[in-house]
Amino acid sequence: MNIGDTLPSLEIPVSRTLIVAGAIASRDYQDVHHDAVLAREKGSPDIFMNILTTNGLVGRYITDHLGPRAVLRKVAIRLGAPNYPGATMTLTGTVTALDGNTAEIRVVGANGIGHHVTGTVTVTLDTTPDTAPDTTPDGPGTLGTPEGTA
What we know:
The chain has three helices and five strands; from the N terminus they run E-H-H-H-E-E-E-E. The chain has helices spanning 16-25, 36-41, 51-66; strands spanning 6-13, 70-79, 88-99, 102-111, 114-125. The chain has a five-stranded antiparallel beta sheet, covered by helices on one side. Mean pLDDT is 88; it is low at 139-150.
């Protein structure tokens, strides 16, 4: 990884189900995230995605690209244009800083009306070798059977 490298983009279809499920999962019961009638009464054309769902999608974007050894250290985002049902949010990222095994990645999530999210993610790549015991049925360290008795 080098400064200036770009991550492959990720397109996320924004469905009504994604918006509502994200709000419920993050215990955000604001009506603008699940009730279209009340959202319209408050001036929005429809329900829209909450910041916690967006935050999770940004984290997923980084860890899906960097793999299971990626540890998110900081996610600092700002919301812009809402994500409404039927939109597609495209996430892009650019490495802006490196310090050993820690990187800072600038992330932008855009939809048809503008930038939904902008921010930076600080991530560390764990370079510690995997020391978990081999737990395959015939391998050493098989759980539940003393070595040599299987």
